[in-house]
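Problem: given the chain below (122 residues), write out its structure.
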Amino acid sequence: GTVERDSPVDLQCMTRYMLQEVTVWDVIGELVLLTTEPPPDNPFQLDHTHLDNLPARTQAIVTGSLLHAFHSLLVKNNTWTSPDLLKDYKHLTLRHVHTLPCWSSQCHVTAFALDMLVKTTL
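Solution.
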């Protein structure tokens, strides 16, 4: 029969793991860059159409989860510095704020004020 050959992928992030923290996001991002032709500017590009089609509650949960992941990519890890990733992070933050139920009467914060906060801090 045929003999299967083991062909491990040489990932740069795995050669750095003894010197710095390497996350699963580093592995995923590098795999996307190595296996996609042409390589994308942002290996974590979001499908905004898919997010648009989610029910409001699901969208709030998904955007919150994605924000957490993007936060670890951009702030904690600082390996991924693509302007497109930062743009998606900003857009995702605004989307998340708008998917939350209206609670401005409870804390006196309007969606406009949150938009301004996001735009000036990111």
